[in-house]
Amino acid sequence: MVRKYIAVFLFGCLGGLTRLGITHLPFSNGQFPIGTILVNLLGCLLFPLVVYLIAFTVPLPSAVITGLSAGFVASLTTFSSLNLDGLKLFMNHQYILLGSYLTLNIIGGLIMSLIGLRISRRLVKQREAF
Amino acid sequence: MTVFFISIAAGIGAITRLAIMDLSHLSKLIQHITFPVSTFFINITGTLLIAIAIHHLGQSNLEQILAVGFLGGFTTFSTLTNEMIQLWRSHRYPTCIMYTVCTYLASSIAIYCGYFYL
Fold this sequence. Notes:
The complex is a heterodimer of chains A (130) and B (118). Chain A is an all-alpha fold. Helices cover 83% and strands 0% of the residues of chain A. Chain A has helices at residues 2-23, 34-57, 62-76, 80-91, 95-129. In chain A, helix 1 (2-23) packs parallel to helix 3 and helix 2 packs antiparallel against helix 3. Chain A is globular, with a radius of gyration of 17 Å. The termini of chain A are far apart. Chain B has one domain. At the A-B interface, helix 1, helix 2, helix 3, helix 4 and helix 5 of A face helix 1, helix 3, helix 4, helix 5 and helix 6 of B. Chain B: Belongs to the fluoride channel Fluc/FEX (TC 1.A.43) family. Chain B: It is found in: Cell membrane. Chain B: It catalyses: fluoride(in) = fluoride(out). Chain B: The chain crosses the membrane at residues 6-23, 35-58, 64-85, 97-117.
């Protein structure tokens, strides 16, 4: 219980730091918040990989798995900044950018999650065949 | 130094989220509902709080630590997306659609009202 919380705290710090790094990359400084899209899409891809692939193939303590999923990946992605960036675009009357921003996040996130799920399934199956 | 505090705040946000999820598992009522109540609650509260933080703190280090750090770590997009997929795969289509619509509708209202009225 305590271990799980320590792991989630440490990995959560790391996830937040990674998000900060990605959103401050030189190309994500423009009007269009590319950084938030990148972290959200990356997180959506990583989540199934951690929960299904790493959890079943790498012998790690359950606290570390929870730390990686509920700590690192969940802290890497953000829902509050997504809405805030959306509000900023809305206030600047950039409705086309707002629409493409939300679509890229929502639909892109779903596609990335499905890709992650498919990769995990394929690799776990391959491993079981040996 | 701000970067360090943002990172620590993200960790604190992550354990707050975990604590809320753990607490919600204790409730028998929530266990019976397939709708992911805790993630919904976390994301909407976080959205409302970021609107209030931005509106009242403006551009400052404290705003960065709270908004980018704590609330960024507290709210989660990956869990939301994966819960949508899980609900769809377990053939709970009405719940999945309701969850998606409720989350985006409530978060839009939360960010707008939080910024302009609170």
